[in-house]
UniProtKB/TrEMBL annotation:
EC number, as in UniProt: 2.7.2.8
SUPFAM superfamilies on file: Carbamate kinase-like
Domain of life: Bacteria
Entry protein name: Acetylglutamate kinase
Location in or out of the cell: Cytoplasm
Length: 317
């Protein structure tokens, strides 16, 4: 019997086409990645800007459910900046950002909570649950998952009050771990309980995802956004940095512009606190999560700990 790419010739010389063989090959090619990632926790941050297209949202849900069925433990942390701004606008309230963080008045905080927990999170949970009874939504307030204190913006060395914006001081992973152990997919909104005054805080979703990834001892933090990755010389060139170490990233941080700052700070925090790789990938590409996890055509930017710089850990292949 001889075998060619997609046909098999039996001893009688008849040729049977195995049209399904390429599909089997694709599955087999994923085997090393399936083995490597089996049982590992992956925190995926889904940004508000990557969330505006219906097909992309559906493909995102398929990818996350695929990871779950492939034996990984995905946790979704979602943003919703554009959705919050749209709702504030509808209510005649202004959106103002300082150092990349929303100036959050008590009135705006109500809108942030309503949009993140009541709209964006519900929608993601619904899309995931089209595939089975998998997703459970919670916010950082639930079961003390995220506790924060007031955060100030640093503008040219000056401490600026930006309202009810929080800096995470504590993560209790109990509820998220229990959901994972129960075969569920936690979907977490980036709102934290306050450690000091009984109210809640608005936390940047990149920061929340990174803190949760570190606290969970996740293998991977994956940040989906609306660009290909970290551009080397943004906005002058679209050359993407494909891989960098924690120290290399630390040196770049002071030069980064607003949108990328919390993402790359989050990646740095994650890899400095036990996460094996942190990646910023293009959420506009359908199935970008599967491409990143199960193929060697990794897309976007990967950050690895310094000690992985010379080893094979975190290599693209
Ligand atoms: N060096 C850089 N590389 C890529 N994008 C950058 C860079 N610096 C700033 N940006 C901006 O950051 C944006 C992504 O951040 P953001 O708008 O907060 O996205 P998200 O809603 O996904 O969190 C990009 O659309 C781009 O305009
Ligand atoms: C403090 C702060 O800025 N919080 C963000 C929370 C949502 C978020 O981070 O959404 P994206 O990931 O879509 O940007 C905000 O209010 O817009």
């Amino acid at each position: 019997m001889t075998t060619t790419d997609s046909t098999t010739t039996d001893s009688a010389g008849t040729t049977r086409k195995h049209t399904a063989l390429p599909k089997a090959r694709i599955l087999v090619e994923a085997l090393p990645w399936l083995t490597r990632h089996h049982g590992k926790t992956v925190v995926i941050k889904f940004g508000g800007n990557a969330m505006v297209d219906e097909e992309l949202k559906a493909a995102f849900a398929q990818d996350v459910v695929f990871l779950h069925h492939a034996g990984l433990r995905p946790v979704v942390v979602h943003g919703g900046g554009p959705q919050i701004s749209a709702q504030l606008d509808r209510l005649g309230l202004e959106s103002e950002f300082k150092a990349g963080l929303r100036v959050t008045t008590p009135e705006a905080m109500e809108v942030v909570r309503m949009v993140l927990a009541g709209q964006v999170q519900r929608e993601l949970v619904g899309l995931l649950n089209e595939h089975g009874p998998l997703a459970v939504g919670l916010t950082g307030e639930d079961a003390h998952t995220m506790t924060a204190v007031k955060r100030y913006a640093d503008i040219d060395g000056e401490r600026v009050d930006i309202g009810r914006v929080g800096e995470i001081t504590d993560i209790d992973t109990g509820a998220v771990q229990a959901l994972l152990d129960n075969g569920r997919i936690p979907v977490v909104s980036s709102i934290a309980r306050s450690a000091d005054d009984g109210h809640v805080y608005n936390v940047n979703a990149d920061t929340a995802a990174a803190a949760l990834a570190a606290a969970l001892g996740a293998e991977t933090l994956m940040v989906l956004t609306d660009v290909e990755g970290l551009y080397e010389d943004w906005p002058h060139s679209d050359e993407v940095i494909s891989r960098l170490t924690a120290s290399e990233l630390e040196a770049l941080l002071p030069d980064l512009a607003s949108g990328m700052v919390p993402k790359m700070e989050g990646c740095l925090h994650a890899v400095r606190n036990g996460v094996t790789t942190a990646r910023v990938i293009d959420g506009r590409v359908q199935h970008s999560i599967l491409l990143e996890i199960f193929t060697d055509e990794g897309i976007g930017t990967m950050v690895v700990p310094d000690e992985a710089a010379t080893g094979t850990e975190g290599k693209r292949s």
